Amino acid sequence: QCLSHLESSVLVTCYIQIGPLESEHPQLYGHAFATVWDYGENKVGWVMQLVVDAAVHQHYIATHLLQTLKYHSLFSCVNIVGLVLSHPTACNALAKYASANIKDVELDFICQHAKGILASSPIIYLQAAQLRGLLFQDSSTSDAFVTDAILSVFTEFYIDHTEPLAVLEQYKKKGQWCLGELLDGHEFLAVFPIAPVSLVHDY
Question: What pLDDT digit, counting tens, does each position of 168-187 carry?
């Protein structure tokens, strides 16, 4: 339900050697799991998981993990990147990947393409995901609670949002957020158009 085809997916890991002794093995402190698929004539690169150990938060690990995806051949033709995750830092890291700003997202692009991108996904829970928030709300929408969100997906993953909500407040205080609130059972939706990466080949 949550995985794509292995031949279309890539795993990036971050190991850090904390101790001063060379004999000590580096420890795993983060990973990113991503996949690609076709959406019409476009190639979508999707971050399915982005996990960083709390001990190294605010050390740009999430940013570096996603930037590393650019060096994989699967992502060389990607011109749209996206994710559905609950942590604001993950959304910000993806914005940096796309050379964008998380406080100034291209809402028109997302409104036009979000439904089609998710429907074309090989990941079952994304295909069935319900888009929520002011961007997708119309006059027939009667759910008042969606007005607190702007770009969200109702995934029905009822997980503890304590830490993401605390981080979200910091982004909002700095005026660096435009995706709205994080509601129970929901995750943020972030989608960005990008220029495909040109790989450098050795001859």
Answer: 999 999 999 999 999 999 99
Give the strand order in the sheet containing 27-39: 9-16, 27-39, 42-52, 80-85, 186-193, 152-154, 130-132
Chain-centroid distance of CA 145 in Å reads 23
Query: For residue 131, is pLDDT > 90?
Result: yes
Q: Give dist(CA 54, CA 65) in Å, integer.
A: 15
Residue holding tokens 């998710």? Answer: 118
Place of tokens 């050795």: 202
The answer to whether the pTM exceeds 0.85 is: yes
Q: Which two tokens stand for residue 103?
A: 């406080």
Tokens, residue 176: 């660096």
Output the six-digit token pair for 111.
């409104």
User: How far is it, in rounded angstroms, from Cα 152 to Cα 135?
Assistant: 9
Q: Which amino acid is at 164?
A: P
Q: CA–CA separation, 68 vs 116, rounded Å?
A: 27
Indicate the angle between helix axes 162-173 and 88-97, nearest 10 degrees: 60
* The two structure tokens encoding residue 104: 């100034």
CA distances from 203 to 98, 198, 200 (A): 29, 15, 10
If phi > 0 it is left, if psi is from -120 to 50 it is alpha, else beta; for residue 3 that is beta
Q: What gap in Å lies between CA 118 and CA 171, rounded to an integer?
A: 27
